[in-house]
Structures are given as structure tokens and as C-alpha cells.
Design a protein that fits this description.
three-stranded parallel β-sheet
Length: 93
């Protein structure tokens, strides 16, 4: 999932804990480096569990930053090509 402010990723992780689901949530950063994004997600995930009285299951926070291409709304030729191929193959418009 795309992760910008990291709150959606943290919320999904909290919801998975609430319902005892073993899924992984992998964020793809649109603005922060991996280390900082993972730190923010983990902190907010813990806060949500406490706030909503959900047993914190210490999920591994995963955020990828290798697709940022030096910033928000930036892309390289490879990502542009993948996007165009996906549009052609799956009909996204």
C-alpha cells in the first residue's frame, strides 16, 4: 500500500491485531526514507493499540522506499514503463 503519513498503514496493522489476522502490511513510501517511515508507523501502531485497548502483537513494520525516485510524485523510466504496461494489460485509465 502507498504510505505517506503512515497513519493508514498503522491503522491496518492495528485492525489486523484486533481480529487476530496474521497478514503482513507492506508500505511503499511516497515521501520518507524507510527508517523514518518505519519508526513513525511503529510508534502510531503502538499508540492505536493502547488507545483502543487492542493487544499489541508487535508486528514487523515494513516500508519500502526504493520506488521514491528522490521525492513525491517523481518517477524514473522503469516505473513509467511499468505503469504504461499495466494500463495496457489491465485497462486501468
Amino acid at each position: 500500500m502507498a504510505t505517506g503519513t503512515e497513519s493508514t498503514q498503522a491503522g491496518i496493522m492495528t485492525g489486523l491485531d484486533k481480529h487476530h489476522l496474521p497478514s503482513k502490511v507492506i508500505g511503499i513510501s511516497v515521501g520518507r526514507n524507510r527508517e523514518r517511515a518505519e519508526e513513525i508507523v511503529t510508534k502510531f501502531y503502538k499508540e492505536l493499540c493502547v488507545r483502543f485497548n487492542i493487544v499489541y502483537q508487535n508486528r514487523n513494520t515494513i516500508v519500502l522506499d526504493e520506488y521514491m525516485c528522490e521525492g513525491y510524485q517523481k518517477y524514473n523510466d522503469e516505473i513509467f514503463e511499468i505503469s504504461n504496461e499495466s494500463i495496457a494489460q489491465y485497462g486501468f485509465a
